[in-house]
Amino acid sequence: KGPAAIKLTLCIRPEAFVVEDSATDLTSEVEVTAYRYHGAYCDLVLKAPNGDEAHAHVSSLRPYTVGQTVHVRLEPKLVAVFA
Known about the structure:
Low-confidence stretches: 8-12
CATH class: Mainly Beta
Structural class: mainly beta
Shape: globular
Helix content: under 10%
Distance between the termini: 19 Å
Oligomer: single chain
Radius of gyration: 15 Å
Largest sheet: 5 strands, antiparallel
CATH architecture: Beta Barrel
Strand order of the largest sheet: 2-6-3-4-5
Number of domains: 1
Number of helices: 0
Order of helices and strands: EEEEEEE
CATH superfamily: Nucleic acid-binding proteins
């Protein structure tokens, strides 16, 4: 057996996603799979079309529902995690 392959996972930090009001050239459509309100902020759990799950912290002034599609823009704040 050769050496075990190092699995590199890119984890998206919560602040990496910016939820936009409408679609632009820089946004992707993702589905809200869960949400938790924390005072003035809401932690959205998002599922991207490729199956990846990510979190976004947004203002809780706007209501969110499970199954809702939101437009998100990815900020380049990726963290590499070695498993």
